[in-house]
Amino acid sequence: MTSSSSPAYKRILLKLSGEALMGTQSYGIDPAVATQIAKDISDIQQMGVQTAIVIGGGNIFRGVAASARGMDRATADYMGMLATVINALALQDALEQQDVVTRVVTAIEMREVAEPFIRRRAIRHLEKGRVVVFGAGTGNPYFSTDTAAALRGMEIKADVILKGTKVDGIYSADPVQDPSAIRFERISYRQVLEQGLKVMDATAISLCMDNRLPIVVFDLRTPGNIKRAICGEPIGSLVSP
């Protein structure tokens, strides 16, 4: 692909799992992985694509897992939201080392480290060419960062949600455990819900379906894949009406 390819999307919402930042580690943030992601984002910024990011916190703390072990669910979810802010700050640092101007915006106020989420201000940052990293999920327990991605995607009027994962698309089953799993090039929201496919949780999929916001699921670990997805190359799987 040549760098002159024009972007298929003007404004995107990139959804990263906390686990994406771990690399091969079992916990925490791998600086090399954060740097690679930042370089990929820098590439698309240079194409004039407005980029917002929602990041999870599973590499540090998983609220769902903690509540399964007996912790109060709301408390566990708030702890998970704080973990996403740690990741957002790490990503901001990696992006700024690539000379990408970045703002961390959180759903829970912590003014000393980030801006509170104000929709119009976030959109203004995007229009000025800044990357906006949304931390702390939706600010509400019982909602995942997938749902936060769908919600923020709608609020900023993104053209697409790009969900970076460890696999190269959506499969009928876990391709690691089931070699006969079928990969979908395109699939409808309804099929994802009916088949219970682990793309995003049902709340997030329903939000995207109601607002006709397409989702592209792709392998984040291949350098340059974000740019390929932006240029509309058929990488990964597309969820659409």
- Mean of residue pLDDT values: 95
The CATH homologous superfamily is called Acetylglutamate kinase-like
Domain module count: 1
CATH class category name: Alpha Beta
Can you name the CATH architecture?
3-Layer(aba) Sandwich
Spatial extent as radius of gyration: 17 Å
Strand order of the largest sheet: 4-3-5-2-1-6-10-11-9
Order of helices and strands: EHEHHEEHEHEEEEHHEHE
Describe the structure.
By secondary structure, the protein is α/β, with parallel strands linked by helices. The chain has one domain: Acetylglutamate kinase-like (Carbamate kinase, 3-Layer(aba) Sandwich), CATH 3.40.1160.10. 37% of the residues lie in helices and 19% in strands. The protein has a nine-stranded mixed sheet with strand order 4-3-5-2-1-6-10-11-9, with helices on both faces. A two-stranded antiparallel sheet has the order 7-8. Helix 1 (31-46) links the parallel strand 1 and strand 2. Helix 1 crosses helix 3, helix 5 (145-155) packs parallel to helix 7 (202-210) and helix 6 runs antiparallel to helix 7. The mean pLDDT is 95.
